[in-house]
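so ive been stuck on this for like two days lol. basically i have the seq below and the ligand is pyridoxal-5'-phosphate, smiles is in there too. i just want the complex predicted, nothing fancy, no docking runs or whatever. if the output looks off dont worry ill sanity check it later, just need somthing to start from for the group meeting slides
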Amino acid sequence: MPADPTSLPPPAWRPPSTEIVDARQKVIDAIARAAKKSGRKAEDVVLVAVTKSASDQQVCDLVTLGHQDFAENRVQHLLPRVELVAEYLKNNPNVKTAPGSPRWHMIGHLQRNKVRQVVPAVALVHSVDTLRLAEEIHSLGQKLDRVFDVLIQVNASEEPNKFGVAAPAVLHLAEQLDTMTYLRVRGLMTMAAFSDNPEDARPAFARTADLYHDVRARKIGGDHFNLLSMGMSGDFEVAIEEGANIVRVGRALFESGAAPTA
Ligand SMILES: *Cc1c(COP(=O)(O)O)cnc(C)c1O
């Protein structure tokens, strides 16, 4: 039987490994270069560390480094990780975190029957792709008297097997979400089709950015509609050039040899 990650104590404090310090710095530098290329600043882009390929130790190293944003794409991995980090911080009061940090993001497909477990544990759900899922989150918000922040996931590459709302349906869904008192529609998220060439992702990112600006121009979601989550290890620089202000990076942080080259 596989070990239950929730039953394991978090790793003891250690100075963060040089591998992870270096990998994170490389990603941060690449973000800064891409942001500058599109006339923005590095601080305008949030680096979300996707921990699905990380060890517990690597996650805790990032927490020790003061990293703020973390994500998982599967419920059964997210909840133990949230607990792990909370426990690690409780055991190590010397580890300093910014107020409200660390923040967790749910970036994968979310089933309605998991909403109650997941949504209160995260700062942002990136993957709302149906009205029914939004209604479920809204009704939990009403019950708990909390407002939940969400992004609409767009299927911009139009692959039949991908989750996400088809581009022509995005405006209408955004309007519907905007009427829900206990839900704040904060922006859009997309995933490009897998490819070895980051340029292949550019059209899907550009399409999603167009939709994002369209929603903003119509003032749907008001001033809160200001997040555009696009780009992973293989394509985050292109995503930033196309306007992303949240990138979701896993392998480049946690797999040695996968970091972007200067
Ligand atoms: C895994 C995952 C990522 C990160 O992918 P990497 O290639 O490891 O950077 C980003 N977004 C989503 C939705 C994911 O599932």
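Residues 18-37 form the longest helix (20 residues). Strands lie at 46-50, 69-72, 103-106, 124-128, 148-155, 165-166, 183-190, 227-229, 246-249.
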